[in-house]
Specification:
By secondary structure, the protein is mainly alpha-helical. The protein contains 5 helices and no strands.
């Protein structure tokens, strides 16, 4: 993000918006809102299907951040990235716990 700020963002975004973007980098809101629903989907759908699906979308959305042109599209891609990441990490932890013993 800092490289994008140095090379591309000053042409289109003001300094106050940059501070807001730094604040939104944690993705806390979308990550927290997607953890539980994603684990519920993980229980219904096989981890063999759900985790690669989330990994693909997480990588695709992370790549899309390089093509963001404005503030609104940045926030939209960041929110979608948070949804994918919020499901991926807890899903991997759950899979690791379940594969090391009979906890279900």
């Amino acid at each position: 993000m800092s490289r994008a700020w140095l090379y591309f963002m000053p042409l289109t975004l003001q300094g106050d918006i940059y501070l807001l973007l730094l604040e939104l980098m944690s993705w806390v809101d979308t990550i927290l809102r997607s953890e539980v629903p994603s684990n519920l989907v993980l229980k219904k759908v096989s981890p063999r299907i759900w985790l690669p699906f989330l990994t693909f979308w997480w990588g695709l959305l992370a790549m899309c951040l390089g093509f963001v042109k404005g503030y609104g599209s940045f926030l939209a891609v960041r929110a979608l990235l948070g949804l994918a990441e919020g499901g991926l990490l807890p899903g991997m932890v759950r899979l690791d716990i379940l594969s090391n013993g009979d906890y279900d």
